[in-house]
Design brief:
With 85 residues, the protein is mainly alpha-helical. The protein contains four helices and no strands.
């Protein structure tokens, strides 16, 4: 599935605003197949959110990179796992 830079940018903006659910919702349509992810019982760890932010910036910088699709999928699942139950 193609990376939609505008959606990734919108997800990054939502993430930076602290809205993990919206960021995951924006990335979801670009993830090829979805699996169940257990929601976290704690608040999102800042280092986890920072990691996703770095990944999204890397995708935006070069959406044609071979790693872009994998980083997008990892970002989506990392966000889903960090969202409170």
């Amino acid at each position: 599935m193609a990376v939609k830079v505008e959606q990734v940018q919108a997800a990054l903006t939502s993430l930076q605003a602290g809205d993990l659910a919206e960021a995951a919702r924006l990335l979801g349509p670009m993830v090829p197949s979805k699996r169940h992810v257990r929601a976290s019982t704690a608040s999102a760890a800042p280092e986890e959110v920072d990691e996703v932010e770095r990944w999204l910036k890397k995708i935006i910088a070069d959406p044609t990179d071979d790693e872009a699709a994998g980083l997008l999928t990892r970002s989506y699942y990392k966000l889903r796992s960090q969202m409170p139950a």
